[in-house]
Amino acid sequence: KHFQLVIYCPITYSDAKHFIQIFERYFQKLHEHQLFDQIREQMHTWFNDDQEEKQWYEQIKERLQKTIDQAFPDTKNFFAKTSSRSAKDTCIFKEDFLQIYRSELSKFPDTLQENSRITALLTAAFLSLCVTSASDVLSMFIISERIYQDMLLATEAQNTTDSLFKENIILRPFVPIDVDMEFRDNILEKILSFFNDIVRIKLNQYKPNSYVIDFALRKGDDESVNSMNVWVIELNPFMETTDGALFSWQHERDVLEGQANENKDKTLFRITERVRPGSWTMLPISIRQWIKSESDL
C-alpha cells in the first residue's frame, strides 16, 4: 500500500484565460476539422507568432519547472493533470507515440487482431502520459480539448481574482500500471481491504462522502494478488457525468446507489470475461483512422 508525494502548482485566473485564448486561436479549428498532422506541427511553434503569449508561456514554464525541481529532485518521470482532468486526449500527438505503439504491438503473436491493437494502443496512451519537464506538461495542456473545456468552466464558475481562483497543475511521480492483466486470485478482497483500511478513513474527513473511485493494481514481486500494490488513481463525483464502466446510470441507478433489494448488503464486482465485439467502434474516429493507416505493421 503506497502513498505518493503530490505537488500543486497554482493556475491563476489569467493563466486559465491564456490557455483558453491560445487553444481557440491556434488549435480549436484544427480539432474541429480533424487536422491532426497540423496540430503536431504547431504544438511546438505556435508562440512564434505572438510575443505576448510567448512571454506568458515562458513565465509559467519557469514557475512550473521550479516547482518540479524543488519537489522532485530525484524523480525524472511525472504524471500531470489539472484540478479537473488530465490531457489524455493529446497522447497521439506526442512525437514518440507511434514508436511506443509499434513496440507494444510487436509483443503480441497476432498483431492484426483487434484486441491486440487496442491493448497496444491503451498501453502507448498510458505511457505517453509520462512527462519529464514543464515544457512537456504545457505542450500537452495547450492543445488539449479537455483542458480547454475545464478552463472554460472554471473561469465561468469561479472568482476572477487570481488569489481566489482555485485551479492547479497537479504533479506526482509516474507509476507504470498494466492496462491488461489476468487474475487467478480474489482481487475484490484485496481492493476492499485497501479501501476499508486506508481510503475510507481519509474520505470521512470530507463532504460529500459519495464518490466514484478509480483503483489500480500493480504487480509485486510475483504474480500473486497478495504481492500486488493497490493505488487510488483519482476520485470523481458520484454523478452521471462520471462513466459507469460496466454499470449503467440509466438502467441500474438503484444498483449503483445501493437501493436494489437483492444487493443492499453486497459489494458488486463486475469483470469483462471475454473480448467484446465492436470495441473498435467505441474508439474516437481520430484513433481509428490513425491505427488503420498502420495496418501494415
From TrEMBL:
Pfam families: D123
Name of the molecule in the record: Cell division cycle protein 123 homolog
Organism of provenance: Rotaria magnacalcarata
